Amino acid sequence: MALPPMISAEALGGMPQFVLDVAGEKRLAEALHAANLPFHVVDERSGYISKHSLATFVHQAAQSAGQQNIGLLWSPYLTVADYGAWGQYVLSAPTLGSALKRASSIMPFHSSADRAWLETSGTRSRYCYHFGLRSHRAYSDIGFSAIGVFLSIFRTYLGKDWKPAAILVDFPRVPKSVEAEDTLSL
């Protein structure tokens, strides 16, 4: 029997606390229950959870908080530094290029089904990320959250005011897409 795709519990980041603060303990408990996650995951982020549980929690969190595009709301506050040993290893690289290569090469230790890679052509570079559970209804929120995490790597090395030339996503345009451009500072 094959295991389902798994991800480090640290990928929840501050999301449980956000739901607690915005929607209350009852809604947080409902979101955790729907995602088959124990309540102690709010304080303790050790081990791995299924990717389906992560995505379901994100979807339930959005409903509980009454937020459309919750991943977009979280994106500016998410950082690779919050991802435990994986994030620390990535950020201990001496250069941005080394950090991106580290993030890509050790991605399977953070998430069993996600992949990231760097593509370069002349003076242009593009960092790509594939979330291993594209069919989940929270996919766009997961995508927006991941953008925040990966932008934090670039901004660690290039400065907090650095802006990408473009961000391309592989999901349909979301409601209030102007919000996305404003939030991601494009």
How much β-strand is present in the residues?
Answer: 5-15%
The succession of helices and strands, N to C, reads: EHHEHHHHHEEHH
Low-confidence blocks of residues: none
Q: What is the terminal separation in angstroms?
A: 45 Å
Query: What is the subunit organization of this protein?
Result: single chain
In total, how many beta strands?
A: 4
**Rg, alpha carbons:** 16 Å
Broad structural category = mainly alpha
**Morphology:** globular
Helix share, percent: 40-55%
Strand order of the largest sheet: 1-2
Number of helices: 9
Mean pLDDT: 88
Report the major sheet: 2 strands, antiparallel
Q: What would you note in describing this structure?
A:
- This protein has 186 residues and is mainly α.
- The protein contains nine helices and four strands.
- The strands form two sheets. The chain has a two-stranded antiparallel sheet. Strands 3-4 form a two-stranded antiparallel sheet.
- A hairpin with a 2-residue loop joins strand 3 and strand 4.
- Helix 2 packs antiparallel against helix 3.
- The mean pLDDT is 88.
